[in-house]
Amino acid sequence: MKIYAIRHTSVDVKPGICYGQTDVDVAESFYEEQNHLLRELERVTFDSVLSSPLLRCRKLAESLFPDLEIHFDSRLKELNFGDWEMLSWDEIYAQPEGKIWMDNYQTLPTKNGESYPEMVERVSAFIREIEKREVENIAIVAHAGVIRILKSLIEDVPISQLFENFKPAYASVTVFEINKHD
Prior knowledge:
Elements lengths: L1 E6 L9 E2 L11 H12 L6 E4 L3 H10 L5 E3 L14 E2 H6 L1 H8 L12 H16 L5 E6 L1 H12 L3 H7 L7 E5 L5
Helix pairs in contact: 5-6
């Protein structure tokens, strides 16, 4: 089984803002980025399409796969940054609890939000469910954090290595292969 993890297009948010699970809209470059993805994916036939329900993913999934049923799954949402949603990273870091979190982001929850271990658990539950399907190609429209976790789980890469070395670009496709074992 191949999983085509598609990161949403650029968003209508100033650079440097933490938007996490805030339902922000896509940037003006949406159609240009969407067309790039359509060309990249044109030779692939998808058996299943799953997407984060957040607007930036939903719009992209619906535009890329107008003739396929799309299953929206909340487990594919980005990390919930709680009180820090829509603040700049500098503002978050300036807060004592923000600095503590940034120094320990792999274990601590965000302020009134979610921790990476919680996010890993929900994405793990999702992938365990997907692995049971008898399909060849699955499209997943999601967020950079989700795609990093997919890479960590499927390719057995420590998540700590992925934050520095793996940064999925907007409107990019990362392909993973899951080999089924009897």
